[in-house]
Specification:
Shape: globular
Largest sheet: none
Number of strands: 0
Mean pLDDT: 91
Helix content: 40-55%
Distance between the termini: 35 Å
Amino acid sequence: MTHPHYNHLKLDKKFKPLLGDEPLPALQIKKNVCLELCSSILSQQLSIKAAAVIYGRFLALFKRPSPSPKDILAIPFDTLKGVGMSTSKTTYIRNVCHFFIEHKLTDRQLHAMADDEIIALLTQIKGVGQWTVHMLLMFTMGRDDVFAPDDLGIRQGMIRLYRLENLDKKE
């Protein structure tokens, strides 16, 4: 799949060697945006392996592989937490589910919205920040024109690639 931004980046002499000659894989659109958002929260600040184990335990709590927000809220707080999540992550996941139910959000509605609308909507949820929504837009909703300027990996990579001074000393 040809992406205009990919072709643009290939014009940069520092980026071109990083991109190689292989085309970018197409981003996949996933179902159950609410569950994917919960998964994103669950996996934050964990290794991929640890996140996969905890997510597997989380899904094992349900009778079906793609639980709804109501299914998730039906599980007692301590049972959810017991799969290996912190108290705050458990709270944030429950916040997401309550929000989706209260706003009667569906995948179809969200996919019809512009990126900025989705960011404005979902960042109202305590525990969901802009970076999380950017990741959701890209890796759940298949939006390939999203850029996450607050992503630490991107920022550190740009600093190294262009030999920039890191002015944000908290990194």
